[in-house]
Amino acid sequence: MRLDKFLCKSTDFTRVESIDLIEARKVRVNGIVIVTPQAQVHENNSIMLAGQRLIARPSRYIMLHKPMNTLCSNVDGDYPSVMNYLHMDRAEDLHITGRLDADTTGLLLLTDDGRWSFNIINPKYHCEKTYRVTLRDPIEEGDIDELVSRFEQGLQLQGEKSLTLAAKLEVIASHQVLLTLCEGRYHQVKRMFFTVGNRVVGLHRQQVGKLSLDIELGEWRYLTEDEVSGFNCYESVI
Ligand code: URA
């Protein structure tokens, strides 16, 4: 990680304060003064600030059951931010791994580990996200096969250059489907159904990778080590 980030993760200094300290020649990495805040360091390096060895706090990995009418942002806006549900120190250091719309409920992941998030969000790594979708109009029995195949082949969303990647659609009732995607374009699920002439009236994310939502609305929990490392298995398919 970057040296300035390492300082933030191991002290109470802000990013700006960390950069000032580095530029003021106060930080040594493996005995050498480093003045570049962007320098890459590893946690195993000996990183000293004014003669004291720094140890990075462990990264945090959190599942939150996002309620309706909450914002995936670090600050409140038209609705309260989901951060209000996390009563913990340094909640502001966390970022959201794959945002949901204000009116979407379900599985939200938060972390302070950017590399881990990248594995989950980047379509290249093919990490599946499953949504339970409630539709305005019923899907007729006779239309199911064609619809499944359109989602599988990719849809041309308005204003997008490329087709959506192959998506799995499973019809579970006339107005309800499960949709599994491995990308997350802006309002993607809503726009996909708009493209096929329907409307989404309810959206809930129930699974990301192998991780299923298993807590009540508004609750959060830390992921287990196995759950965290389960996301590191995604390999690039492109
Ligand atoms: N697709 C949407 O349209 N909204 C979400 O919140 C997530 C996926």
Walk me through what this model shows.
With 238 residues, the protein is α+β, with helices and mostly antiparallel strands. It folds into 3 domains: 3-53, Structural Genomics Hypothetical 15.5 Kd Protein In mrcA-pckA Intergenic Region, Chain A (Roll), CATH 3.10.290; 61-125 and 213-238, 2-Layer Sandwich (Alpha-Beta Plaits); 128-208, Alpha-L RNA-binding motif (Alpha-Beta Plaits). It has 6 helices and 13 strands. Strands 5, 6, 7, 8, 9, 10, 11, 12 and 13 form a 9-stranded mixed sheet that branches. A 4-stranded antiparallel sheet has the order 2-1-3-4. Helix 1 (3-10) crosses helix 2. The longest helix has 10 residues, at 144-153. The chain is elongated. 25% of the residues are buried. The mean pLDDT is 95. Bound molecules: uracil. Uracil is lined by residues 100-101, 104, 187-190, 203. Its EC number is 5.4.99.-. Residues 1-60 form the RNA-binding S4 domain. It holds the Pfam family PseudoU_synth_2.
